[in-house]
Hints:
Layout: H1 2-5, H2 16-20, H3 23-27, E1 31-36, E2 40-45, H4 69-77, H5 81-87
Antiparallel strand pairs: 1-2
Amino acid sequence: KILEEVGVPCAPINTIDKIVNDPQIKSRNMIIEVEHPVAGKLKMAGLPLKMSKTPGSVRYPAPLLGQHTNELLTEMFGWDTDTITEKLK
């Protein structure tokens, strides 16, 4: 109330339980559920920007440590399997 009276922009601070149960958060898919290979079903933040012509989506959970190492080394550096094995010893 004090901040509002002097013109400072402010809003209530919600707790996690209030946020995940908020109707606006639910209707905008701001909290989504993904299947993780180790942790199982996880709730995580959805995409904050919603664009009608170029909609985005969360397609995968966070990768496991090193999950894409070989793929990246092959694509970015052109390394073959033998080179990757030798360099990562």
